[in-house]
Amino acid sequence: MAAYGKVRRGRTRRKYHAAAGGVCGVAHAALALYCICIRAGGVHKSAFRLASALCSAYGIGGARLTFLRGACFFTVFCGEEEVRACRPSPRMAEYNFFLLESCFSVVRAARRGASFEDIQSRICAIEQSCPHVLKQAVGCLAACGAFCMFFGGTVAEAAVAALTGAAICLIGRAFPRCLPSPLVGFLCAFSGGVFGIVLCRAAALFGFDCCPSAVALGTVMPHITGLSSFRSLCMIFSGRLKGLKKLFYSLFCALAVACGYAACGALSACDMCITPLPAGGIYGAALCSLGALGFSLMFNARLPAAIAGAAAAFGAFMLYSACLPLGAYTALFVAVFAAYALLSAVCVPLFLPVVVLFVPAAVPFVPGGALYLAAVCLARLNLSCAAEHAAVAACTLCIMAVAAVAGRCAGEGAARGISKAVRAVKFRRGRAEVTKKGRQLSSF
User: Fold this and answer.
1) Residue 61: its H or E element
2) Long-range contacts made by residues 316-321, C-beta under 8 angstroms, separation at least 24?
3) How far apart are CA 283 and CA 183, in angstroms?
4) What's the CA gap between 196 and 198, in Å, rounded?
C-alpha cells in the first residue's frame, strides 16, 4: 500500500459548512481532479498537490492519498471525522495540455471564491471532453513538415512529410485502444512509411525529387518515444525508480516504430536511414518554434498556450545557438536549465502548469532522430552504428534530464522567493495603512 501526503488532522473552516455537497462532495471532486490530471500526463505528486489545493480552497486540510488493490482512496479530515472518497487507480497517459490547463483553472476559480456547484460542473465538463481530431492532425502536419526542413529536407519533402504525418495521426486513432502501444507504433510506422513512399513516387512524376529517408526522419519526430524517454529519465533523477520501467517500455516502443520503417524500406527497396543535418541560427529557431507549435496542438493545447510554447522554443534554441562555441552538450544543458528555471519562476506564482510551456521548448532538443537511427541500425543488426547513435541519444537525454531537474529546483526556489517578497511588500503596505489610519484617528 502506497500513500501520498502527510497524515494529519486538518481544520475545517466554519464557512465551508454552508457549501453544497459537504466535505464528502469536496473529497470526491478533489479525487476526480487528481484522476483527470494523471490521465492528462501529470505525475502523482503534482496531481496530489492539485487535489489538496482544491480542498484547501474550501478550508479542508489533512489530505491523504492511498493506493490499495487497484483503487485509490482520497482521505480528508473534518474535525475528528475522517471522510474518504474512492476511485479506480488512473493510468498515466500521453500529454493532454487542455486537461492540464483545465485542472489548474478549476483550482484558480475555487481560490477566487467560485461556488462549489460551479466547480462540480466544470469538473464534469472536463471529464466528458474529448481531444479534437482535426487539431491533432493539423499539429502533426505542422510538426512533421517543420522538422523535415529542420533536418535538411526540401520544401517538397516537407510537404510530403506533413501529409504523411497527418495520415499517421489519423491511422493511429483508428486502432482500438486495447492494442499494446508497441504494436500500434509498428503498424502506424509501417503504414506511414508506405504512404510516404507512394507520395514520393507521385511527386517524382511531377518533377519533384523527394527522398523517402528524409521524409521518414521528419515524420518520426512526433511518433518516436524520445519525449517519453526524457520523462522517464526525469523521474529517475528525481528519485522515483518507477521511471526505469517506463524508460525500458519507451525504448521498446521506439524500437517497434523503427522496425516498422525498416520493414517498409526493405519491402520497397528504399534506404530509410539518413544522417540528419540540423539547421541553425534564426532559420533553425523558426523551424523549431513551428515544430513546437505543432507538438502543442498534437497534445490538445489551447492556441494561446501553443503560441507561448512556440515562443519558449524559439528563445531556448536561440540560447542554445549562442552557447554552441562552449560545446554542444554545454549549450544543451544551459538552454534546458534556463528554459525550465525561467518558466517555473513565472508559472508557479501564477499557478499555471509549467509542463505546458516547457515540453514544447524541450521538443527540438529531444534526440528523436538519433533514437530512430539507433533503432533502425539495431533492427538491421548493424551493432556498431546502433551503438554510436544510441550513445548520442543517451548522452543527450541524460543531460536534458539533469538540466530539467536542476532547473525545476532553481525555478521553484526563485518562485518561493518571489512569493515571499510579494507577501512582505503587501504586509508592509497594510501595516503602513493601519498606522496612517491610526494617526488620523488620534489627531481628532
Assistant:
1) strand 61-68
2) 316/361, 316/362, 316/364, 316/365, 317/284, 317/285, 317/288, 317/289, 317/364, 318/282, 318/285, 320/365, 321/280, 321/281, 321/284, 321/285
3) 36
4) 5
Q: Which of 417, 166, 386 is nearest to 258 (CA)?
A: 386
CA distances from 110 to 123, 127, 132, 436, 439 (A): 12, 18, 27, 34, 38
Please, are residues 78 and 58 in contact by the beta-carbon 8 Å criterion? Answer: no
Contact status, residue 356 vs residue 344, Cβ threshold 8 Å? no
Tens digit of each residue's pLDDT (9 = 90 or more) over 133-161: 788 888 888 888 888 888 888 888 888 88
Chain segment 12-46, per-residue pLDDT in tens: 333 333 343 477 888 888 888 888 888 887 777 78
What totals of helices (H) and strands (E) does the chain contain, helices first? Answer: 16, 4
Separation between Cα atoms, residue 200 and residue 157, nearest integer Å: 8
CA distance 5 to 62: 8
Per the DSSP assignment, residues forming a β-bridge with 68 are: 71
- CA-to-CA distance for 268 and 198, rounded, in angstroms? 10
Question: Rounded to the nearest 5 degrees, what angle is found at the Cα of 146, between the Cα atoms of 143 and 150?
Answer: 130
Cα separation, 10 vs 384, in Å, equals 60
Determine the Cα angle at 214 with ends 213 and 220, to 5°.
Answer: 85
The C-alpha cell at 389 is 547513435
Residue 164 contacts residue 219 (beta carbons within 8 Å): yes
> What DSSP element (H or E) covers 74?
strand 71-78
Q: Which three cell numbers stand for residue 281?
A: 541560427
In whole angstroms, give the CA distance from residue 356 to residue 95: 9
Listed range (234-243, 293-302, 348-357, 371-380) with the worst mean pLDDT: 234-243
Instruction: Summarize pLDDT for 163-184 with one digit per residue, the tens.
Output: 888 888 888 877 877 788 888 8
Task: Note the pTM of the prediction, 2 decimals.
Answer: 0.80
Amino acid at 175: F
DSSP three-state, residue 84: strand
In the block, residue with C-alpha cell 502548469: 353
- SS3 assignment for 194-254: HHHHHHHHHHHHCCCCCCHHHHHHHHHCCCCCHHHHHHHHHHHHCCCCHHHHHHHHHHHHH
**Phi/psi at 2 (5° precision):** -110, 150
In this structure, the chain runs to a length of: 444
